[in-house]
Amino acid sequence: MAVTSTVSPSLKIGLRLLGVWPGVPLSTFYWLTFMSSILILQYFQYQYIFEHFKISELPNLVDGLPATLDYTLTFLKLASLWIHRRVIHQILNAMDNDWCECIGVDQYLQVMRVKANISHFCSNAMLSFNAVAGVLYLLGEYAIRFLYLAENYNDTLRQLPIKVQLPFEINRSPTFELLVIVLFIHVMLNVCTVAVINALILTLVFHVSGQIDIICQEFRIICTKIPIHGSSTSTLGILIERHNKVILFSDNVEKLFSFIALMQIVWNTLVICCLGFIIMISVHNDTSVIVLVKTIFAYTAIMIEAFIICFAGEYLCLKSKSIADAAYESLWYDIPPDHVKIILFMIMRSQRGLAITAGRITNLSLEAFASIMKASVSYISVLHAMY
């Protein structure tokens, strides 16, 4: 079946369940239900954090902090998406219009289908990886205890998948088993939500990069479409209109993800720091294999999450500047001088580049990702020295 949208079916289902896809009935109910459940769980998570907020219990504190911060980040992301849901609708409508314009031109359609296939693959890969990492993180400790500690297993040592401080006894059956199932399902929903949001930003960037590739293709053959003697500006006018659409689309993506990117950088730095610290202290711990297995997968997932959003900003910036290169490398000297001036203005605008910023403070780039990793390692060293 031919691809007709940059948004993959799995991503579309995720956005519908989150209540931000246009035209979904009971979207407000879905969003409020999930947000309310996050708030309830967050209350008990922070109860645990405040209960163990002391140097003597630093390993327990740092073990519970990553999941707590990750839930807080998800809550802020969903709140931001809901506030900017009209922007999401504008973006999705613009994507549909772009595909409609490409239907009649085979070379345009081929470019967009290539980008759509890449987008679909990345979306499915992120959902699959996050799901596997979530399962291993949640059930890894239970599996290891079952394999290696079965003889010494004690009901009083029962632990929930994530650290929470509940106001009632949890070690008795069937209360413990029910809590494990409920928390497992809820955490997996949170993990899939993170994957959906990450897949969304990559999908939007791949879509706009497809439109940029179409503009670059037009510049390569522009001299064959503009007569040497003539005043028609229809060809350049179409290019300018398409370039303006790309700029508007990028501005909407920036508006949608600016706050999310800022929170992502701050929170991921803290979470990577906590997980790295857990890995370091687990190496010197007799039961290090129990914590190490689940922590390494979580650490990898968080690093990939930070890398994805930084890569999206870097890729968008590089692709937008390629318009200037394509315009300069075109046979502009074979077209009328008044048309050359228009191309010159497009080159000047393209040299500024398009970007996704973190709270309009810094551009998302691979350099920003390197800064996150450097800061995390520095904080890990401080925590290890304190421990």
UniProtKB/TrEMBL annotation:
Keyword Transmembrane helix: yes
Keywords: Cell membrane, Membrane, Olfaction, Receptor, Sensory transduction, Transducer, Transmembrane, Transmembrane helix
GO BP annotation list: signal transduction
Cell compartment(s), UniProt: Cell membrane
UniProt KW Chaperone keyword: no
TM stretches of this protein: 20-44, 121-139, 178-205, 265-284, 296-318
Membrane topology: Multi-pass membrane protein
GO cellular component entries: plasma membrane
Molecular function GO terms recorded: odorant binding; olfactory receptor activity
Pfam families: 7tm_6 (PF02949)
Family annotation (InterPro entries): 7tm6_olfct_rcpt
Family: Belongs to the insect chemoreceptor superfamily. Heteromeric odorant receptor channel (TC 1.A.69) family.
Protein name: Odorant receptor
Native source organism of the sequence: Ooceraea biroi (Clonal raider ant)
